[in-house]
Amino acid sequence: MKQKNIYIIDFDSTFTQVEALDELARISLKKHPEKDAIFQKIEDYTNLAMEGKLSFGESLAQRVKLLEANEDHLKQLITHLKKKVSASFSRNAEFFKKHADEVLIVSGGFKEFITPVVSKFHIKKENIYANTFVTTGDGKIIDYDHSNPLSEEGGKVKLMQQLNLEGDLYGIGDGYSDFQLRESGLIKKFYAFTENISRESIVKKADHITPSFDEFLYVNNLPRAISYPKNRILCLIIGDADPLTIELLKKDGFSVRHKTTFEEKYVPDVHMMLLADGEKIDLEKLKRAVKLKTIGYLGSAKNKVDISTCTEQGIVVFDDPKHNPRNIDFIPKRMIDFMNTGTSYLSSNFPNLQLPRIEKSHRLIHIHKNVPGIMAKINTVFAKHDINIVGQFLMTNAEIGYVITDINAQYDKQLFKSLKKIEHTIKFRVLY
After folding, report:
1. At 94, is the secondary structure helix, strand, or coil?
2. Which residues of the chain have pLDDT under 70?
3. What's the pTM value of the predicted model, to 2 decimals?
4. Which one of 1.10.10.10, 3.30.10.20, 1.10.940.10, 3.30.70.260 gives the CATH number of domain 362-430?
5. What DSSP line would sit under 251-295, residue for residue?
6. Which CATH superfamily is domain 230-341 in?
7. 427, 313 in Cβ contact below 8 A?
8. What architecture is the 5-219 domain classified under in CATH?
9. Where are the beta strands (DSSP E) in 85-176?
10. What is the pLDDT of residues 269-315, one digit of tens each?
11. What is the pLDDT at residue 1?
């Protein structure tokens, strides 16, 4: 009989982008004359504990003493934290709804602010394990419950020993207390979550580095909002590109490499490519870049990129023939839109298609030669697999057809093989 999987997820800097106690300090000490010095002390205590250089119990005690917080400050914090849920957790809310019985939040933070944030993701209150504050009658936070094992050094280990859960346990977190679960042998694998912060001392001990929750779901073959994690999409930047251009692509989650030339080792694996003005792509390498989906050019791509080869291979090109000074953000944004939604608007070689994301559906992209009858073949495949089409968008030019189909959540993976086998297909991918 297959063991039940249980997912143990940290809160601070994992489920949320920030350390909640640090944020509470910024709220409660906003008018304190020595606020900057106190903020720094609190952050230092946080980092020392997360890196395993100070016991968690000592770190927690020192931080709570410095807070000078009350229940009104907590209300402000909760409002703030709801806006700071990590992007990859937010977009996979459906996972938590479907796996509510298997997800545990285990944190050295406090239930008073964790529960209101995670509850809207259908995480059960009885599955939230965290510390609790001690307050005075007028709502001032003066201490915390020292009898809670999570307030102690090795608290997550002590808690999981008490719970004695049956099944395969997987831990996801960014700090030393999360790694301790793996070290103790209580969990099967530890995933170092690096979407918000990467701690070298923790990353090197992890079973797997997961730059996003999408990556965790992908490697464990679990339902997810996007079909392929962005951190696995290689974006190669060639030449002298503006730092803003590079930052836009990094911020969206792609795996960015900035190089002076198109190195041979990247040819088979590159998905996106951005070239600085004046750079050229070798035609022979372009033809072998079978995974390449889009090229951005910070200037005119004429005589620098073989556009006809790109079109034949289903590569969408965005360039700026007029050398608009805004191309440093305009071009990467077009590439990002194409990768995220399939939008080919303002492409120099593809039919222009601009469309919204449709929720609770899967988006399939089919690029093909513009020949008579191919759309009938595509829709015949959908009909044979009993697929309900939510929306379909088609644009063509003299050479190619570009069709995006949104389907309902139920599909057979054999469907993808059938679509790829249609004669005159150039490229096919599942967007999300």
Report:
1. helix
2. 1-2, 409
3. 0.82
4. 3.30.70.260
5. HTT-EEEEESS--GGGTTT--EEEE-TT----HHHHHH-TT--EE
6. NAD(P)-binding Rossmann-like Domain (3.40.50.720)
7. yes
8. 3-Layer(aba) Sandwich (3.40)
9. 103-110, 128-131, 133-135, 141-144, 168-173
10. 999 999 999 999 999 999 999 999 999 999 999 999 999 999 999 99
11. 57
Phi, then psi, of 210 in degrees rounded to 5: -120, 100
Q: Which of 236, 225, 346, 354 is nearest to 293 (CA)?
A: 236
Q: Do 196 and 90 form a contact (C-beta atoms < 8 A)?
A: no
Express each pLDDT in 41-70 by its tens digit.
888 988 888 888 888 888 888 888 888 899
| Domain chopping of the chain, boundaries | 5-219, 230-341, 362-430
In three-state form (DSSP H/G/I as H, E/B as E, the rest C), the secondary structure along 211-226 is: CCHHHHHHHCCCCCCC
Q: Which tens digit of pLDDT belongs to each residue from 138-182?
A: 999 988 999 999 998 899 999 999 999 999 999 999 999 999 999
d(C-alpha 43, C-alpha 25), whole Å: 10
- What 134-143 contacts at long range (C-beta under 8 Å, 24+ apart), as own/partner pairs, is 135/70, 135/71, 138/70, 139/70, 139/71, 139/72, 140/69, 140/70, 141/64, 141/67, 141/69, 141/70, 141/71, 141/74, 143/64
Residue 119 is given by DSSP the state: G
Element (H, E) at 343: none
